[in-house]
Amino acid sequence: MIEKLLYIHIFFYWSAVFYYMYKYNQWSLNSTNIMKSVFWNQVLYSPLYIIPYQFYPVPFSTYNVIWQLPSIIILTDVIFYISHRYFHSNKILYNTYHYKHHEYDPPIAAAALYAHPMEHIFINLLSTVSPMFIVRSNLIVSSIWTIIASVNVVIAHSSTWPKDPHIVHHKYKKYNYGVGLLLMDRIFGTYKEE
Predict the structure, then answer these.
(1) How far is residue 52 from each of residues 48, 57, 68, 125, measured CA to CA in Å?
(2) How far is CA 58 from CA 6, 45, 53, 133, in A?
(3) Do 135 and 68 form a contact (C-beta atoms < 8 A)?
(4) Residues contacting 95, CB < 8 A, separation 6+
(5) Could you tell me the mean pLDDT of each successive run of 10 residues in the chain, 194 residues long?
(6) How far is CA 25 from the centre of its chain?
(7) What is the CA radius of gyration of the chain?
(8) Are 146 and 2 in contact (CB under 8 A)?
(9) Which of 3, 21, 96, 103 is the most buried (most CB within 10 A)?
């Protein structure tokens, strides 16, 4: 199951990247290097999540999309917020791993998953893959979530969405640590609009 999700992610992620890069002319001299880094993260490190899926519990029914998808969205925000904020609050983690992602301010679509492999594993993948595991989603629900997450991360980094909260995060680095609805930021007072 997870192998199919990896292919779905790669297809939709790169489709969104190329769409935004061309539409908004975000090509730069570093675009090729950024894309190489993202591609290697996807090829070398994303497959690590195949291992826990060898022990994946029997998925619930397809009809559970009604509660599973909202649960995955909320769980992703919680996990991403905690791991992302921790990488920001710990100077060693930030300077060693997370700083790479903040090299582009404002961010560009190609740099959505531009990250050190440790960040890619413990922030990006942990927050998007483990919620599917927690709610025991089947391939249909997991595929829908993979498409949403893959395209959303590109849009959030494309610098094209008015009042994009993730652009505020890249600008100030101490607000909007979460994703999606930013519920955790709203609860903990780290939400900011531009």
Answers:
(1) 8, 10, 19, 12
(2) 20, 25, 11, 10
(3) yes
(4) none
(5) 84 95 83 91 89 73 82 98 98 96 89 96 95 88 93 93 89 95 97 92
(6) 22
(7) 16
(8) no
(9) 21
φ/ψ of 69, rounded to 5, equals -65, -50
- Give yes or no for a contact between 124 and 112, defined as CB atoms under 8 angstroms apart: no
What global pTM score does this model have?
0.91
Decide if 84 contacts 126 (C-beta within 8 A): no
**Structure tokens given for 176:** 């909007």
CA end-to-end span of the chain = 40
The label of the residue with tokens 């560009």 reads 108
